[in-house]
Amino acid sequence: SQQGEEDPQALSIQEGENATMNCSYKTSINNLQWYRQNSGRGLVHLILIRSNEREKHSGRLRVTLDTSKKSSSLLITASRAADTASYFCATDARGFGNEKLTFGTGTRLTIIP
Amino acid sequence: ETGVTQTPRHLVMGMTNKKSLKCEQHLGHNAMYWYKQSAKKPLELMFVYNFKEQTENNSVPSRFSPECPNSSHLFLHLHTLQPEDSALYLCASSQELDRGNQPQHFGDGTRLSIL
């Protein structure tokens, strides 16, 4: 069954505002990753956060992880038109190596200039 | 430039045709993957190769036949496809096979349309 689910499915904000996307998952994980996909392109890795980490930053991106709630959030600050894309979370189920990376259906983010 | 190149970018084929998708990675990675991306669905993992040996086949119909001649190249041979096979096919690679603790690098995909 699907491991990660993003929320909302679609989000439109004005340029300069902050964008927050959420990911919920069902089973315990070792790691959670966020990816971006621009229209007509492949996925690009953004951030990886481990189960023992609570927060991670990369430039304008901030990812949080709450393992007790089985959820993660991706915050993009000071959004730009170039941030328009779909954003996916991907999780691995905790196990004994070679865990399968399972992707959600994504959040479609539109930045309005 | 992600270091993973897929060709062709677009492919239209009839249900009785035979075609192949190609993926090449220039990153020195050991693991390569084929994914299928359909509208409104999560990314579906199809095949996994590690050091050019297939390690996973996720119940993919036999009309899809992968080939991995070396760690840098991956092919997906297509034969007698169905309209529901129309999708974006993505190739990815990672340094090692443990997929959770390292990023995957994706190509830009082949947009496949079955007539």
Task: Provide an overview of this structure.
The complex is a heterodimer of chains A (113) and B (115). Chain A has 113 residues and is mostly beta strands. Helix content of chain A is 0%, strand content 59%. Chain A has strands at 4-7, 10-14, 19-25, 29-37, 43-50, 55-58, 61-66, 71-76, 85-93, 101-103, 107-112. In chain A, the strands form 2 sheets. In chain A, strands 2, 4, 5, 9, 10 and 11 form a 6-stranded mixed β-sheet that branches. In chain A, strands 1-3-8-7-6 form a 5-stranded antiparallel β-sheet, with no helix packed on it. The mean pLDDT of chain B is 93. Chain B is built from no helices and 11 strands. Chain B is an all-beta fold and 115 residues long. The N and C termini of chain B lie far apart (31 Å). In chain B, the strands form 2 sheets. In chain B, strands 2, 4, 5, 6, 9, 10 and 11 form a 7-stranded mixed β-sheet that branches. In chain B, strands 1-3-8-7 form a 4-stranded antiparallel β-sheet, with no helix packed on it. Chain B is globular, with a radius of gyration of 13 Å. Chain A binds chain B through residues 2, 4, 29-31, 33, 40-45, 48, 50, 88, 91-92, 97-105, and chain B through 2, 4, 6, 40-43, 45, 55, 90, 92, 97-109, 111.
